[in-house]
Amino acid sequence: MLILSCSSKLQILEGLLKKSLPQTLQVYGEVMNINRGNPVGHEVIVDSWPDFKAVLTRPQRETVSDSSDSFNNIYAAFYRDLDAYRRLLLDTDAINWDQAFSLCGNHDGIHEVSKDAVVLKKVQLTAIPYFIYLNAKPDKQPQPRLDPGFTFSSLNSSHIDLLDETWPYGGSEHSRKYLANMVRCFPSTCILDSNGHPISWIIMESWGASAHSYTLPSHRQRGYSSMVQRAHGMRVHAAGFPVYGLVALDNTPQHKLMDSLGFQRLSELCHYCIHSPASQ
Questions:
Q1: How far apart, in whole angstroms, are the C-alpha atoms of residue 98 and residue 254?
Q2: Residue 210 to residue 201: CA distance in whole angstroms
Q3: What is 207-233 written as a DSSP string?
């Protein structure tokens, strides 16, 4: 197990991960953000270098202030060899199993190893599968046009209460901290009404996915979600990031929206695995 801290090696890793897209999407997004200022203090673990077979991104240990906070204790994983990945997770100190954390990645083996950890590490597991939608040509979308008095903008700290109230996983100190970090550190796009209030929005997460897409109920069926997705996709694409999002398997309206915007659904699922010590 090695922590990659050398900037030149991290740049090389980014290039190698890019060649393996879309399988590397989550780790690639994390590494891109690490190489661009590392706003949330993450680091990269590999099983070996330069011929790595497994890659893990995680928060730097000094940034984890709450061992029960799985929202902000986020890992992303990619592997070329399942056994190497299993050894990295279960046989090294790459993960602190005494803490709650979330781990995501595209390979089915990520869920498999997380299930192994339930017995071997005496932890609890909640695993949520998501469809992955990727837009290879967001710059080919027509420029969205808003009604007079409405404007595109970015979210800010004054909007956190609204984001937390409308997020299905909101309502806790951890969720508020997580949303505040995402808004402060990563690109977001919203539509403001004539009073300057957000009515529709989307945020980039630390692994590069566009997430938290939401439109206030009173403003639905007017195309605002589509407009926000287009504007945000162009912004993310211009910054060099892949334009992709994760959608719950049963969210049929969002599936239709992504299809209409030119996103392609990948064959593999993203496995979002939430671990916590059995005592919690």
A1: 36
A2: 10
A3: TS-EEEEEE-GGG-SSSHHHHHHHHHH
Distance, in Å, from the CA atom of 205 to the CA atom of 213, rounded to the nearest integer, reads 12
Both tokens of 226, joined, read 């589509």
Q: Got the DSSP string for 95-106?
A: S-TTS-EEEEES
Residue with tokens 């897209």: 21
Question: Rounded to an integer, what distance in angstroms lies between the CA atom of residue 235 and that of residue 217?
Answer: 25
The answer to whether the peptide bond before residue 50 is cis (omega within 30 degrees of 0) is yes
Q: Which amino acid is at 242?
A: P
- CA dist., res. 250 & res. 259, Å (int): 15
Reported as a single tens digit per residue, the pLDDT across 36-62 is 999 999 999 999 999 999 999 999 988
Question: Which residues have C-beta within 8 Å of that of residue 196, sequence separation ≥ 6?
Answer: none
Edge-first strand order for the sheet with 198-204 is 2-4, 42-46, 54-59, 74-79, 101-105, 264-277, 123-135, 243-248, 210-215, 198-204, 188-192, 151-153
Residue with tokens 């673990």: 45
Query: What integer pLDDT is reported at residue 62 of this predicted model?
Result: 87
CA 189, 193, 195, 201 dihedral sign is negative
pTM of whole model > 0.85?
A: yes
Hey, what amino acid is at 164? D
- In whole angstroms, how large is the CA radius of gyration of the chain? 19
